[in-house]
Specification:
alpha/beta; 411 residues; eight-stranded mixed β-sheet; Rossmann fold; 17 helices; five-stranded parallel β-sheet; elongated; 13 strands
Length: 411
């Protein structure tokens, strides 16, 4: 197992190398280096274990290295080595997605347990190298809407996080953010965008390899990668159909799920490729009149363009789960389409999530919206056609004027 040891203290370094040798890691597979030189090795996809010293004098610099490692080499295991037990420091590491830490001097049994866990996770599979094998093909889920402001990027980012980090699913996931220049998914998940963009991939797609893409894209978590658009030329330089189709094929060689955030009013090569390659197309709507009208037209347009209706799902976002105001059958008649998923309205929790640059499952794990998005991920992973809304069935419809407008849309 190839291991990088990034330490500043020479005595600790010798102790760590000795412990690795005793744990069965051969000397030629151990790369000792300083913090300064760690950046030379972080994109080496053969490295499965990163050991990083975190001491009182180097906490800030160590965190920078850990964040860099997570973003550049998301499939490797990062294990901080602490010079003393510090509960506040351990909590900060947990928030960064770190599950294991070691104390100096190294406990051989604990180190061997970490190495065994890594070996079991990889199972000798080529997946650790960013390639799932010649017959592997990941699933593509395209999130789209005709009307702006329905929450497409929010759904895409949080769905990607749930597929990647939810224990019931935990799949290697890529979010492909095709929205011009915005790269909202990176912002929503607090990830630093990579220099590798969909523009650069499409420009040179015939010479691209899936393993290079896997190791070069931005990583929001150890299991969740993000590829966005070029922030300087996005929206000016066209992403054409054929290169994007080839790029998506490359992505599905390395990732079990590719979530595509497709911008609104997009009917160019991005739209055609994202819909054509999708195993599921999730059309996002809200319950306001303009969104319902636009969603109905959009679904009709998808059908007229020959999109497979069996793979189209309609998701109602910001649904008022407690009022009981709108019955599913009324919404479905207005939309002329079955509703597959509901995501409840929880403005306060979602704003806090966005402001913190965290997925809702990470920021507000006990909220109703986090539960709904987790169920959405599990439902999509299981191929479910319908995930019902959670609502208080004892409450009666309020008789809002919305009902009359809804009936008018049915005509």
């Amino acid at each position: 197992m190839k291991t990088l040891v990034a330490l500043e203290n020479f005595e600790i370094q010798q102790n760590v190398i000795s412990a690795l040798n005793e744990s069965g890691i051969e000397a030629q597979h151990i790369i000792p280096c300083s913090y300064k030189d760690a950046g030379l090795f972080i994109k080496d996809t053969d490295i499965q274990l990163f050991l990083v010293e975190v001491s009182d004098n180097s906490t800030e610099e160590a965190f920078k290295i850990i964040d860099l490692l997570k973003s550049a080499n998301g499939f490797a295991t990062i294990v901080p080595i602490l010079t003393k037990k510090d509960s506040d420091l351990i909590l900060q590491l947990i928030k960064r997605g770190i599950s294991d830490v070691l104390l100096s001097p190294i406990n051989i049994t604990e180190l061997q347990g970490i190495i065994k866990k890594i070996s079991s996770a990889s199972g000798g599979s080529s997946a650790m190298q960013g390639h799932q094998g010649p017959n592997f093909k990941g699933k593509v889920v395209t999130i789209t809407s005709y009307k702006g402001g329905t929450g497409v990027s929010t759904i895409a980012a949080n769905l990607g996080f749930c597929l990647a980090e939810l224990d019931a699913v935990r799949k290697k996931t890529l979010i492909l953010d095709l929205a011009n220049q915005s790269n909202h998914c990176s912002i929503l998940l607090g990830a630093q965008p990579s220099n590798l963009t969909i523009h650069s991939i499409c420009k040179d797609v015939n010479r691209m390899e899936s393993s290079y893409i896997f190791s070069s894209c931005a990583w929001a978590t150890p299991n969740l990668a993000i590829i966005g658009t070029d922030p300087d030329i996005g929206g000016v330089e066209e992403i054409r159909f054929e290169p994007l189709m080839k790029a998506i094929n490359l992505f599905t060689e390395s990732f079990e799920y590719v979530i595509i955030d497709l911008p609104t009013h997009c009917f160019d090569g991005r739209f055609l490729a994202a819909v054509d390659k999708a195993d599921q197309v999730v059309v996002v709507s809200t319950i306001d009149i303009t969104a319902i009208r636009d969603s109905r037209l959009y679904l009709s347009m998808l059908r007229s363009l020959g999109a497979d209706t069996n793979k189209t799902r309609l998701l109602i976002n910001r649904y008022d789960c407690e009022s009981g105001m709108f019955k599913t059958k009324d919404l479905e008649q207005a939309l002329q389409n079955a509703i597959s998923f509901y995501v409840p309205n929880d403005f306060k929790s979602m704003v806090e999530s966005v402001q913190n640059g965290q997925a809702i499952l990470e920021c507000k794990p006990n909220s109703m919206i986090a539960e709904a998005l987790a169920e959405l991920a599990i439902g999509i992973d299981n191929g479910a056609m319908f995930v019902p809304p959670k609502m208080d069935t004892k409450k009666k419809p309020t008789g809002s004027g919305f009902g009359g407008l809804l009936m008018n849309l049915k005509k």
